[in-house]
Design brief:
five-stranded mixed β-sheet; 6 helices; alpha+beta; two-stranded antiparallel sheet; 289 residues
């Protein structure tokens, strides 16, 4: 009897000890989880604060830089018109250098400012119905002279008459960024084209080129901020590496997606959509008919 009682007491003590250890382990684990959650929350808050400060700094700095740069561009353009009479050849070359450098810097500053605005959520889309072929022609009026310098053929393959619903200004900005990159990375006597690849009620477009292409390992990274791929034919890396990052953000704002297919030394095709409902219904019906 005493032996059995002692055994029962021993088992009860062991069970109580195990239960106490289990509860302590649970409390320790709960405490560790709470501490981890607190640390993650603190780190997240620090990262968000750092991102806000970075965005505000970029926005303010870009704004302050853009004002004097606009003045430099304006006065250099005025000098190039030679209002006071012909400039000596050397001075004309100096003015041309000032114009080129100021425009380059202004473009970089505008890229940084655009990215800062997007990150801060300060860009609102103004969706409207318009013909993408007409918007593309406006972009090509700027791109064509750049392509002509390298004897690059540029083709507008968008069907006339079709309408899409999107922010016209941002749509043109997307096309300009993709086309300017295509010109930059396409050798002389190459070809660039813009085609429609819409599906159902989603407007989708392709900007293709016969350029130097993109390695498989970099097909995703090219949309990261400040990432630059390769070196343009016969040139050096230029710009901020923000063009494609801004393009992706603008596509994302439309609810669309952007991706690229590329073969090194043969060319690239950038595809982007503008989200569900971006293709005007009449255009869909006409295509199906």
């Amino acid at each position: 009897m005493l032996t059995e009682a002692a055994s029962d007491i021993s088992l009860a003590l062991e069970s109580a000890d195990r239960e106490a250890r289990r509860r302590k382990a649970e409390e320790d684990l709960r405490s560790l989880n709470e501490d981890l959650e607190r640390r993650v929350a603190e780190r997240t808050a620090q990262v968000e604060r750092a991102n806000r400060m970075k965005t505000e700094f970029l926005a303010r700095t870009s704004h302050e830089l853009r004002t004097p740069l606009n003045a430099i561009v304006g006065y250099s353009d005025l000098l190039a018109e030679e209002p006071a009479g012909p400039l000596p050849p050397t001075y004309k070359r100096f003015v041309a250098n000032i114009q080129e450098g100021a425009q380059h810097l202004l473009h970089m500053v505008n890229d940084v400012l655009d990215l800062a605005k997007i990150e801060a959520g300060r860009i609102d889309l103004n969706r409207e119905e318009f013909q993408p072929a007409g918007a593309l022609e406006e972009v090509l009026s700027v791109i064509a002279p750049l392509a002509k310098i390298k004897s690059i053929a540029v083709e507008n393959q968008l069907p006339p008459g079709a309408n899409i619903k999107a922010d016209r200004t941002r749509f043109k900005q997307i096309l300009y960024n993709l086309l300017s990159n295509a010109v930059k990375f396409t050798p002389e006597n190459g070809r660039i084209w813009v085609a429609e690849r819409s599906r159902e009620k989603t407007a989708c477009f392709c900007v293709g080129d016969t350029g130097i292409g993109i390695p498989d390992a970099e097909l995703e990274a090219i949309f990261d901020e400040f990432h630059q791929v390769g070196t343009p034919p016969g040139g050096v890396k230029e710009g901020t590496g923000l063009g494609l990052a801004i393009t992706k953000r603008l596509v994302d704002l439309h609810g669309g997606t952007i991706w690229v297919e590329s073969i090194p030394d043969r060319g690239s095709c950038f595809y982007f959509s503008l989200g569900p409902g971006s293709l005007e219904t009449a255009a869909v019906a006409q295509r199906e008919w």
